[in-house]
Amino acid sequence: MSRQDKALKRLLSIPKDFTWSELVTLMKGLSYDLQKAGGSGRKFVLRESKSTLFIHEPHPAKVLKPYQVRDVVHHLSKDGFLE
Q: Which of 4, 43, 47, 52 is a good FRET partner for 37, with 20 to 30 A between their CA atoms?
């Protein structure tokens, strides 16, 4: 199982301690580009289809909220990365 697969499996378990850096690494591995969107807003844009996930970078703690993790799972499912 690759690092990417392990990260996806962890994400699907909707953990309460999924970090921003884990998300960035996962999304970049799936061909998303990270862009700033003003303030703490960030956009992950899929290179091929330009599908965009807008999310706020958490601060000061770098742990995603459970609703953010669910949003990421929903977006990856919509883009065909999850079965």
A: 4
| Residues 6+ positions from 36 with CB-CB distance below 8 Å | 42, 43
Contact 12, 82 (CB under 8 A): yes
Residues 25-60 have pLDDT tens digits of: 999 999 999 999 999 999 999 999 999 999 999 999
Tokens of 54: 């807008």
With beta carbons less than 8 A apart as the criterion, state whether 67 and 56 touch.
Answer: no
Which H or E run contains 33?
strand 32-36
CATH classification (class only), 3-78: alpha beta
End-to-end CA distance of the chain: 16
Residues 79 and 26: their CA atoms lie apart, in Å, by: 14
